[in-house]
Amino acid sequence: MTTHQPASASRPAQDTRRQTPASPRIALVTGASAGFGHAISAALCRDGWTVVGAARRADRLNAIRQELGPNFHPLELDVTSDTSVAHAVAHMAAHFPDGPDLLVNNAGLALGVGPAQHADMQDWERMILTNALGLSRMVHHFLPGMITRGRGHVINIGSTAGNYAYPGGNVYGGTKAFVKQFSRGLKADLHGTPVRVTNIEPGLVGGTEFSLVRLHGDEAKATAVYKDANALLPEDVAEAVVWAASQPPRVNISTIELMPVTQSLAGTRVYRG
Ligand SMILES: NC(=O)c1ccc[n+]([C@@H]2O[C@H](COP(=O)([O-])OP(=O)(O)OC[C@H]3O[C@@H](n4cnc5c(N)ncnc54)[C@H](OP(=O)(O)O)[C@@H]3O)[C@@H](O)[C@H]2O)c1
């Protein structure tokens, strides 16, 4: 006679969901000098990670080191420069030869809110160079080491702008659609390896420099973007990153799309001339 055991009997008694690293694991976070990158670095440090926080503004990174302590290591990096990324690779090899276990490709920006027909070509170039080419360059340099070490996780910061078109989103949305499809392609290429890939796609998030950069320093307009919107906070995105990174090794979180409750999809429009 077969005895049926309750489903729980085949499971370990303790909660194995969250995998806080037993020994310090190494995360490389780009765009760590502000916004999401700062919050992601703080959350990972709290979760026991050693974080190399990279961005162009060394002074900002050094201030974050004062705030987060010795588990945060500043690294000057411009993802649009091959020389700068090669320097980062050499720095990681010299100081953190066992890492990174986690690469968070967060550095990115939007420039301009106008329609495509009025856009500045230099803005378009910079978005493509940073959000698409810069992100690809980081993956190109750091992915082979993850495969050699037999562990790794690439978390890309995409955007709802890559999923849904909106007026003025044009090339920014295009770069984030690239991030989405590139993430899917990476997952396909990594078939049979233990390396994980996640794309995190936030909607409207306040408390960062994003809109100030997008609106070329116009503080009044940047503030108005978030007025009464109850937007997400950088900490909400950081929580998604830490959650995806702390899953058991068998789990690959492919996509997380998060929006504030106040944000929804408007559907298509009809212009009545
Ligand atoms: N805020 C939102 O509503 C929102 C929503 C969805 C997705 N996102 C995406 O989330 C990411 C972070 O945005 P955020 O809101 O935190 O913006 P943010 O506050 O402006 O931060 C952007 C970060 O990227 C860094 N960065 C920009 N260009 C870089 C480069 N060439 N090399 C290295 N670092 C560079 C900046 O540092 P330095 O200037 O010091 O280099 C800064 O640390 C971006 O990819 C953005 O597209 C934002």
Description:
By secondary structure, the chain is α/β, with parallel strands linked by helices. Helix 4 links the parallel strand 4 and strand 5. The protein has a seven-stranded parallel beta sheet, with helices on both faces. The chain has one domain: Rossmann fold. Bound molecules: NADP nicotinamide-adenine-dinucleotide phosphate.
Low-confidence stretches: 1-9
What is the helix/strand order?
EHEHEHEHEHEHHHE
Oligomer: single chain
CATH-assigned homologous superfamily? NAD(P)-binding Rossmann-like Domain
- How many β-strand runs? 7
Name the CATH class: Alpha Beta
With strands numbered from the N-terminus, the spatial order across the biggest sheet is: 3-2-1-4-5-6-7
**SSE-based structural type:** alpha/beta
What's the structural domain tally? Answer: 1
Shape: globular
Helix content: 40-55%
Question: How big is the Rg?
Answer: 20 Å
**Mean of residue pLDDT values:** 93
**Sheet with the most strands, sense and barrel status:** 7 strands, parallel
Q: What's this model, at a glance?
A:
This protein is α/β, with parallel strands linked by helices and 273 residues long. Helices cover 41% and strands 13% of the residues.
Describe the structure using short key phrases.
273 residues; alpha/beta; Rossmann fold; 8 helices; 41% helix; 13% strand; globular; disordered N terminus; binds NADP nicotinamide-adenine-dinucleotide phosphate
